[in-house]
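Question (not urgent): is this output format expected?
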Amino acid sequence: MVEAFLAILLITMFLFILVSRENIQSKFNENVYAEETRILKSIEMNKSMREEIHNIGNLPVAWDDANFPIEVKNKIINENPNYLNCTAKICEIKDDCLSDEISDVDIYSRSVGIFASETRYKPRQLKMFCWVGAPGEVVEVGVYCGDGNCDADEGETSDNCPEDCPVPPPEPEKTCAELGGEVCGEGYYCIEDYLSANDSDECCPVGSCVEIPLLKADVTLLFSDVVYRLVGGVNHTYTHTRTFTESGGVGVTLTEGQICYLQPSFHCDPKGTVNYRIEANNELIHENKKFWTDEPQNVFNLTYYGTDDNGYPVVVEQYMCVKEDEFYPNTLTC
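Got this back:
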């Protein structure tokens, strides 16, 4: 009987310890994500850091790349808790934006959209990656300093364990209206730094809310797979493939097309009606299309007209220079 009681007691103690550790780990995870969110939010709300991110050319930009914004990097380094190591990456808004650097530890990741600077609307995402300890080091999350809990019973204070017991910043004393600010409505963004108000995290100085411009389609046309034939001893015929590519994230409908010729002098056929649909970030491929001319040398100029899904006009054109059995797609010169 005593042995059975002791066995039950041991099992109960084991389960209690196991549940306690899981609760500690869960709380620790919540604290890490909260820290990441806080840092990312402060970057999103900072005008100069938004400008830094929007001034980057090609994406993605990794943490160790030379063109990673230095102000953003310093902000992350200076504000992440002592028990965390963090890096970041800047990607297109729709990318998965995965870390290429850390693979052998548990990674805590959070991202924020950086939608606009003062002069441009170019949606991007800033993603943070944090872990406990150095890369490659297996870390056991403890129950004292560094576990994300301020354990006053164990002597933890803001002086000896600031990562677990941070001193909260003073609460703002005024409302957004009292500060002379306003909250930007849906479809608008703030081009200045947000004001610290006690009733909103998105208090923008009055007059600094700017309407977010709608995205515009970006359509290109390329000729490929050109095959030459001389038909009837007169017509130089060039069978080819036409590939339309939309890369701006907005669908397009083309409704008119026109072909022009540079030889013997510039002239155009009348515009013709078409109905070509190019979905956002997709291609439309037309095979076995033909150009022909009875001139020994010519330049074809094919132009399409239409409208994107946000109402902006779209014009896309391409050239092909030919010289009898020689052909040079996507160029004006032979």
